[in-house]
Design brief:
The chain is an all-alpha fold. It has 2 domains: 58 residues, Homeodomain-like (Arc Repressor Mutant, subunit A), CATH 1.10.10; 130 residues, Tetracycline Repressor, domain 2, CATH 1.10.357.10. The protein is built from 11 helices and no strands.
Length: 199
């Protein structure tokens, strides 16, 4: 039997529920600690069953790292909205405003920084984050391949450009956090990407 594609309304509701659970979990992790917070704690706080929880997330780790899947979707949407004649590097920079906006959201910044600390302090989460980032890079390389009209499986340019752009984003984020947000994230990202602007 062929599986039906979820309707846009159903998919939006699913994304909203995932986002709500993730925010609730982040508050619990910040309050109790990641290791000390159980799935039972999460479902009790959310007022849902474990079965419902597992419809949205496969594990507690998935709950923490699922943000990369959300960012990937938003980045690809932002990239697809860029003008086709725009230089690829500029399209990447402009699409990264999605992530800049997330980190600059004053209502979320305390929670966001707490989660970054949790991820960096947990080897399993750090490894999982690297894996998720690699998946994001693949999606960005696919976009670059379409823009450059070449196959990322046989041409190194799309993956190299996507990897370099993503490295700029991660570097800017890490410096922004390490320097206690002394300089705007967007400015750090501009500096990083300007250092590698293709000729």
């Amino acid at each position: 039997m062929q599986q039906r594609t979820p309707s846009p309304v159903r998919e939006r509701a699913r994304r909203a529920m995932r986002a709500e659970l993730a925010m609730l979990a982040q508050d619990l992790f910040a309050e109790k600690g990641y290791e000390q917070t159980t799935i039972e704690d999460l479902v009790a706080a959310a007022g849902i069953s474990k079965r419902t929880f597992f419809r949205y997330f496969t594990s507690k780790e998935d709950l923490v790292l699922g943000k990369h899947d959300v960012w990937a979707e938003r980045l690809i949407d932002a990239l697809n909205a860029r003008p086709g004649e725009e230089p690829l590097w500029e399209s990447f920079r402009r699409s990264f405003d999605v992530v800049v906006g997330f980190f600059n959201d004053q209502a979320q910044v305390t929670r966001t920084l707490a989660m970054e600390k949790i991820i960096q302090g947990n080897p399993a989460l750090s490894a999982g984050e690297i894996e998720r980032i690699a998946r994001v890079q693949e999606q960005l390389a696919d976009f670059a391949g379409r823009r450059l009209k070449c196959d990322p499986a046989t041409d190194p340019r799309p993956a190299a450009i996507a990897g370099a752009a993503l490295a700029c984003l991660i570097t800017a984020k890490n410096i922004w956090i390490a320097t206690d947000r002394a300089e705007p994230f967007a400015d750090l990202l501009d500096q990083a990407m300007a250092a590698l602007t293709p000729a």
